[in-house]
């Protein structure tokens, strides 16, 4: 990987586009949910207003250094996940800092934000935050297992750890996608997608109706604004990985928008028809159904 | 405090004993270290609230006020019977979400405290704590006639009459009970106040802090919390 300074500007542009895409897409998804429920729903620009409002709040309270760093780590996890993975395949501008081993790094970054958040929420001193974080970590760990196994399976299949090469191998028609060449690995990874998107039925950790509101209980104003930014950036970044690994990647922004929206809607559709799991139920679910599919994927390869 | 008649004010000078979990105590840590804990000192910030200045440029403040007006986050905290009129606002019939109104479960993320009906002295304590934990600028809406003059609880020995004596109210929605339509109309009026920059309740509270605290303490018998708790 050769480095040029212009890449920094390109990377910033990628982050900017993805954040705006995420802000609008999550609002659209909420609006779809509202329409299904017979409501009119929020305006599509509501996320922007909430963001400005939270930045504009006048009083901010800190509980310590880690409390401050928690949302920063979380956003770092989201941006890191996005920037070390090619967003647009074959594009010089949006190839980002992809390199030969980026698949392994991506697996780390998926977890990075949650760990940072655990430290920050722990320092806020609120019992709900501590309980929420421990539940969240337990659930995300269980949900990541099938993803890790699926990633091993496809890196064995393609004999590489570079996402760019995996995308390259899938070019030339829809039947070259991993979805069709390795459906079991894709299925295992989809368990993890539904499990880590923080949507129903696996959103007991942050659901406002449960132990109020979990890890972000004490977060407000600009801290919350950072976390909101991550809440729109991180799912898109994660979906980009799925798109690259299993759905043939994207060669332009239009393809990117359609594919990311479609993959994101999988977790939304699962969410609207299933009631929420408790944490021990969801862990059991992943170990019982997700893990065997992941192991099967490795064995088949 | 003209509305606080004798029968209503706390008529005793007896000190109520602190609840057990709030008493100072010493705890032995697993490694043998002895730690002195005074919950009222350790668990709360003792700093009085500050008056927060507006943004230096008027155009920036106007922009912020516009955002604040269109993103009202209500604290999910129901006090009296009025809480039941707020639930239909989320459902398809009234759908307050389309106006940028949503409910937050924690005071840290809320901007609007709706006192929904009568407020007993016991609940007043919780309302004060919730209000003080909210980040500034924050707004209070008094819902129903109970918050204006006591309403049908005028003679009650244990509910406050004028909410404005204890928390800085930005807007009252009159009625017993006001219907969800009235609430929506009230929220629209509140939005207009915010956009004009007239909803500065948090600063009013900070400026007249002593007055509010005196009023609060004159009715709450067991004041077992710091003067300002966040």
From TrEMBL, chain A:
Keyword line: Membrane, Transmembrane, Transmembrane helix
Compartment annotation: Membrane
Membrane topology according to the record: Multi-pass membrane protein
Pfam families hit by this protein: NADHdh
Organism annotation: Sinisalibacter lacisalsi
Transmembrane stretches, start-end: 6-29, 65-85, 97-121, 133-154, 174-194, 256-273
InterPro entries: ComplexI_Subunit1 (IPR052561), NADH_UbQ_OxRdtase_su1/FPO (IPR001694)
Protein name: NADH dehydrogenase
Chief localisation class: membrane
TrEMBL record, chain B:
Keyword NAD in record: yes
Highest taxon in the source lineage: Bacteria
Coiled coil region boundaries: none
Record Pfam families: Oxidored_q6 (PF01058)
Keyword list, A-Z: 4Fe-4S, Cell membrane, Iron, Iron-sulfur, Membrane, Metal-binding, NAD, Quinone, Ubiquinone
Ranges for domain NADH:ubiquinone oxidoreductase-like 20kDa subunit: 80-189
Similarity section: Belongs to the complex I 20 kDa subunit family.
Name of the protein: NADH:ubiquinone oxidoreductase-like 20kDa subunit domain-containing protein
Source organism (scientific name): Sinisalibacter lacisalsi
Taxonomic placement: Bacteria, Pseudomonadati, Pseudomonadota, Alphaproteobacteria, Rhodobacterales
């Amino acid at each position: 990987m050769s480095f040029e300074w212009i890449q920094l500007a390109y990377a910033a542009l990628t982050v900017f586009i993805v954040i705006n895409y995420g802000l609008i897409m999550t609002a659209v998804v909420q609006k779809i949910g509202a329409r299904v429920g017979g409501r009119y729903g929020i305006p599509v620009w509501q996320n922007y207003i909430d963001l400005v409002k939270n930045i504009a709040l006048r009083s901010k309270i800190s509980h310590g250094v880690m409390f401050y760093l928690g949302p920063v780590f979380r956003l770092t996890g989201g941006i890191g996940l996005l920037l070390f993975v090619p967003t647009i395949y074959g594009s010089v501008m949006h190839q980002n800092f992809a390199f030969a081993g980026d698949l392994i790094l991506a697996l780390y970054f998926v977890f990075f934000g949650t760990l940072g958040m655990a430290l920050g929420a722990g320092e806020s001193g609120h019992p709900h935050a501590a309980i929420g974080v421990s539940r969240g970590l337990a659930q995300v760990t269980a949900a990541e297992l099938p993803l890790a196994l699926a990633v091993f399976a496809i890196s064995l299949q393609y004999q590489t750890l570079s996402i760019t090469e995996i995308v390259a191998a899938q070019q030339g028609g829809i039947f070259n996608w991993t979805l069709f060449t390795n459906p079991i690995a894709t299925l295992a990874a989809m368990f993890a997608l539904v499990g880590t998107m923080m949507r129903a039925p696996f959103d007991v950790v942050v659901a406002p109706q449960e132990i109020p509101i979990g890890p972000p209980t004490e977060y407000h104003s600009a801290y919350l604004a950072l976390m909101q930014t991550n809440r729109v950036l991180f799912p898109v970044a994660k979906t980009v990985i799925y798109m690259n690994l299993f759905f043939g990647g994207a060669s332009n922004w239009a393809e990117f928008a359609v594919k990311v929206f479609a993959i994101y809607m999988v977790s939304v559709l699962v969410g609207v028809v299933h009631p929420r799991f408790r944490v021990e139920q969801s862990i059991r679910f992943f170990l019982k159904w997700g893990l065997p599919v992941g192991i099967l994927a490795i064995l088949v390869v | 405090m003209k509305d606080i008649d004798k029968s209503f004010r706390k008529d005793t000078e007896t000190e109520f004993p602190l609840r057990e979990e709030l008493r100072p105590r010493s705890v032995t840590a697993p490694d043998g270290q002895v730690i002195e804990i005074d919950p009222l000192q350790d668990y709360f910030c003792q700093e009085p609230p500050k008056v927060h200045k507006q943004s230096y440029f008027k155009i920036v403040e106007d922009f912020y006020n516009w955002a604040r007006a269109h993103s009202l986050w209500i604290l999910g905290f129901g006090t009296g019977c009025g809480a039941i009129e707020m639930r239909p606002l989320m459902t398809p019939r009234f759908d307050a979400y389309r106006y940028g109104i949503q409910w937050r479960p924690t005071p840290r993320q809320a901007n609007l405290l709706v006192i929904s009906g009568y407020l007993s002295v016991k609940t007043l304590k919780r309302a004060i704590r919730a209000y003080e934990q909210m980040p500034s600028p924050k707004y209070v809406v008094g819902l129903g006639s109970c918050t204006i003059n006591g309403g049908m609880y005028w003679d009650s020995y244990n509910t406050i009459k004028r909410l404005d004596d204890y928390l800085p109210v930005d807007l009252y929605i009159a009625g017993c009970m006001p219907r969800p339509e009235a609430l929506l109309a009230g929220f629209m009026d509140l939005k207009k106040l915010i956009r004009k920059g007239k909803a500065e309740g948090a600063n009013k509270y900070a400026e007249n802090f002593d007055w509010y605290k005196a009023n609060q303490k004159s009715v709450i018998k067991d004041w077992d919390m710091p003067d300002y708790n966040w």
